[in-house]
Design a protein that fits this description.
The chain is mainly alpha-helical. It contains 3 helices and no strands. The mean pLDDT is 90.
Length: 97
Amino acid sequence: MPTAARPHRYTENRLSLLARMKKIEGQAKGVQRMIEDDRYCIDIVQQLTALSAAVDEVSLLILQDHIDGCITDAIREQHSEERIKELMLTIRKAMRR
């Protein structure tokens, strides 16, 4: 359960995460331009693959911070069962794509 009293662990890396997201935004706009310009299909797919990898990396970084922060705190406070179920559900959803 998120709490306003404690900042989320990822806030330590906020600037880096935001920089990655801006790069992802630029990649997405680039793919859009490629489609508008009728670029070669394989080139578009390669850019989409790079875009997906960049998004996955941001997700993994935030999940790592979640485990290092929220999950670790929940274990210390003996409230881990709900947090671990939530984490596993999130991982399952991510793996289904």
